[in-house]
Design brief:
The chain is built from four helices and seven strands. By secondary structure, the protein is α/β, with parallel strands linked by helices. The mean pLDDT is about 90.
Length: about 170
């Protein structure tokens, strides 16, 4: 029997998925259904681009609904402890230093939230605990000097601060 993947989520990440699922089920699904109904009224379905587009959109919406339902079913929401150790759900401030940090113009302090893989979003400074930098932070403390092996090379940083989210 195949093992089911567990999805590590923060409380915020679970809430976002639940909100997205609610939107898809209660609003988007009905909108797409109306598009299909309208496209059918145009006649011949074999050469009806609007109908094809609406059916494709319907398939995408239904696929996303199934994906979210699966993720929520197998979600493990992390309980963020109030300690000074980096775990999923913590906000960490890192000071990058060293040759690669300078070369990549990332020297200095950056703040990230360590999250589950499905919540990761570099544009929002949310790092997956499985990413090179995120993984290197796990179980570390303030003041620890850390090296992370990234595709670009070894990145060096110091953990400056750890906070509990929310």
């Amino acid at each position: 029997m195949a093992e089911t993947k567990e999805y590590i989520l923060t409380v915020e990440g679970r809430a976002k998925l639940e909100a997205e699922l609610n939107q898809l089920v209660t609003v988007t699904r009905k909108q797409v259904s109306e598009k299909i109904k309208e496209a059918r009224s145009f006649g011949d379905l074999s050469e009806n681009a609007e109908y094809d587009a609406a059916k494709n959109e319907q398939a995408e919406v239904e696929s996303r609904i199934q994906t979210i339902e699966h993720m929520l079913k197998y979600a493990k929401v992390v309980d963020v402890e109030s300690n000074d150790i980096v775990t999923v759900g913590k906000v960490v401030t890192l000071r990058f230093h060293g040759e690669l940090a300078e070369l990549m113009d990332m020297a200095g302090e950056q703040t990230y939230t360590i999250v589950g893989t499905s919540e990761a979003d570099p544009n929002e400074n949310k790092l997956s605990y499985e990413s090179p930098i995120g993984a290197a932070c796990i179980n570390k403390s303030v003041g620890d000097e850390v090296e992370a092996e990234t595709p670009a090379g070894i990145v060096q940083f110091t953990i400056m601060n750890i906070e509990k989210t929310q």
